[in-house]
Give the backbone structure.
Amino acid sequence: MDLDTADRQKRTRLISLCFASLLLLLMYGPLAQWFVVADRLIYDKLAAALPNRGIENAYILSIDPAKLDQSQVLDRYGQVLALLRQAGAERIVLPQPPPVAADDPLPGWTASLASGTSIYVPTRHRFADITGHDGFVNFAADPDGVLRSVNMWQLNDGVMSPSLPLAIAFDSGDAESGYRLSNADDLIFLSNRIAVERPDVDELLRGRINPSIFAGATVFVDTEPELSGAVARLPSGEFATHSEIVASLLAALQQGRAIVAPSWVTALEALAPALLAVVAIMLLPDRGRRNILSITAAIVAALLLIEMLVLYVLQVRIDLGRPILILSGISILSAWLVGNPTKASKDAFKRGSDFLAAGRLEPAFAEFRQCPPSDTLAAVMYKLSLAFEQQAKPERAEAVLDWMKRTHGTNLKPQTAAKNGGMPQRLGRYVIEKHIGRGAMGAVYLARDPRINRSVAVKAIPIEKEFEDEELKEARLRFFREAESAGRLTHPNIITVFDAGEDKGLAYIAMEYVPGIPLTSFVDPTKLLAPKRALELVACTADALDYAHNQGVIHRDIKPANLLYNPKEGSLKISDFGVARMTDNNRTKTGIVLGTPMYMSPEQLGAEKLTGLSDLFSLGVTLYELLVGEVPFKASNIAVLMTKITTEDPVPVSGKRAGIPPSVDTVLAKALAKHPQSRFSSGAEMAIALRNCARIS
């Protein structure tokens, strides 16, 4: 890891640590109740779907107090209890019997509470002194109005007394319930409402319901009709009465499914936010946004799964909402600190390219190290290593190559050199492997740089055969000048030139090897690209030309053959910048330079001084051919062709092919204007116009 990356990671982790510390301070301090909301929300969602079973053979009988006074309600209780005793009910539970003041006389039927069927009532109610079976009924909702937990024990005159459902469970001899709540696990948590059958009391008293159905049953008697008599809202969002709550708790206790929170859970809940904060600070900073999102989603999913499994399988409530909240907070902060990785890498690449062009190699190396690995970056770094060598800094060149090996790997395998009698086996240090084409200045070979085992394209020119004496000297100077001009360009859509030299009578340029198809493959009328795709590719070319023109380099031979397209990756690169010359305001002689006549601008044909606007004319001709499969100016000889290029306007393409909007005609008319001043002012301007056309095509 380089120093600037390490420093950035330390800075990001420090910011994340400060943010996490603030969150933890608020979470355990003044805003604790606000953070608990996350715990409650997750628990409520899980508890609502928790599979529960009710008490077997249980009923709720609700006496409607709407039309009865206090004494009538008590009388109705007496009638119902008498019927249940006669029917042989196993036990009767009165979760919330009518209050009876200390100085009021008890109804006569209460004397029978002490004998026969066990009757359970709330502690401290006057009935409790008679029945001998009692327990606390104290349901306290959370601040948001939801009843999530009930105390199973309560201090009563210095003695711990059980709650009503726990007292019933103990009397029934349920050992499991006692074990589950015997070690300070004094809370039992609620989930959803378990439906209990509710026979109509009036129908029962009129004899329309056979009392024998209550034989051996647990019967709850209250004055709280379903829904209208509800006293609490459960985590599932359902409303429940005292009887329904006691019935749910009793069912959980008897079946060993009581939801509890042991002491180890409380300790874990206290530590979990801090532990998750540490994990997030170690894992998330300085990752890409997609990685941050993936890691966060995976951890959150794991935490939710753990909470669900512990709840559903072990019946233990463990709240992980706060850890999830702090993890999400650090994740959002980390993603924000990372910023837009695409824009940041593009900016770093541009700054590095500018530094490299200016000969400031160390700043260029620092900027390039901030970019993600790619073939384009590898090509530029290779070029940077050669630049370090030229400055007599071999140790820095090695550092660049080592960085490339660490980030890009070393899985490029040497290929067997071709055994072609007419092809050199080696040029400079480059091992020639096969002939792959012919450029405007000579043959092009696929070669290998043995130093880093990297494939390169080598363009070779038989310079000694073409020129002699003084002409050879001038040609050699021009060749290296052109190579130097191309070597200044570092752009994702321009093939990078690494090196230039002379060997065995051949001048050569080593450049980035790009597998691709020249756009000449798509000028056949039967194989044309979709108009939108053609416009997008030409827009990318215009952007790259804008960059080159700003560097003082003109291509002079833009045509489909010099635009390499990789359909699989959707990328395009301009090749053959080796025929370009550095623009020199002190020179008056420019001449026609190695161009293709049908793509030339009028000023290039007239041997006038050229600017980058000449390339835009050639790009317009290229776009025309890509759209309709023919060039705008055709002739049987060079003289007629030159006349057409300099005097005639092309036929609009919108009438030649369906799906091309008229706006493309406007763009082409401007790009193919006879006078440079009438064309687009720059490649960037032309690219914007082309992309606007692509949006409506």
Observations:
- The radius of gyration is 43 Å.
